[in-house]
Design goal:
This protein has 188 residues and is mostly helical. The protein has nine helices and three strands, in the order ααααααβαβαβα. Helix 8 packs across helix 9. It is globular, with a radius of gyration of 19 Å. InterPro entries: D-amino_acid_metab_enzyme, PLP-binding_barrel.
Length: 188
Amino acid sequence: MGTTAAQQHTGHRSFADPAPGPGIDTAAVAALADETLDWRFKAVPADAWGSTVRDWLATGPTLDGLGTPLLTLDAAALDHNLHTMAAWCRETGVLLAPHGKTTMAPALWQAQLAAGAHAITLANLPQLRVARAFGVQRLLLANTLLDPAGLAWLAAELDHDPEFAFTSWVDSADSVRQMDAALRAAGA
């Protein structure tokens, strides 16, 4: 897909344009292994507190030592699903933007993007901020962002990173007018 005159003028990537690489800051995702475990991690047992994720996983913890509720993923099934979906999308010419809002797991987002997902879909401003903290380059908001402060933040993200592409669902022409007014007020 070619770039539009507006993209050439602003230097911004179109949401539909593919970008090189995985579309996420892989170093930021890898740094999660160095996160220190504490009370903020609800399923992790107290005896793991103070350890990094990497160090704790090296002890070989088992599922029966974790709190509930707990979600587990089958690595083989996940890998199969990632590659099956990516192949189907390639064959049918569809751009995939899986629901990152369901997992809020940057490591999974990285795997989805590496397998061929085009973008990550999120539902609200806090989720967008998490994705941007991990350098996700193409985001789809399955919602309408009307918060003026949130739109100002979004405008700054777009200005700061010409590789960042964003699209949002809107539910009415009035929503578009409100978004436009807030973006203009933010200097976008």
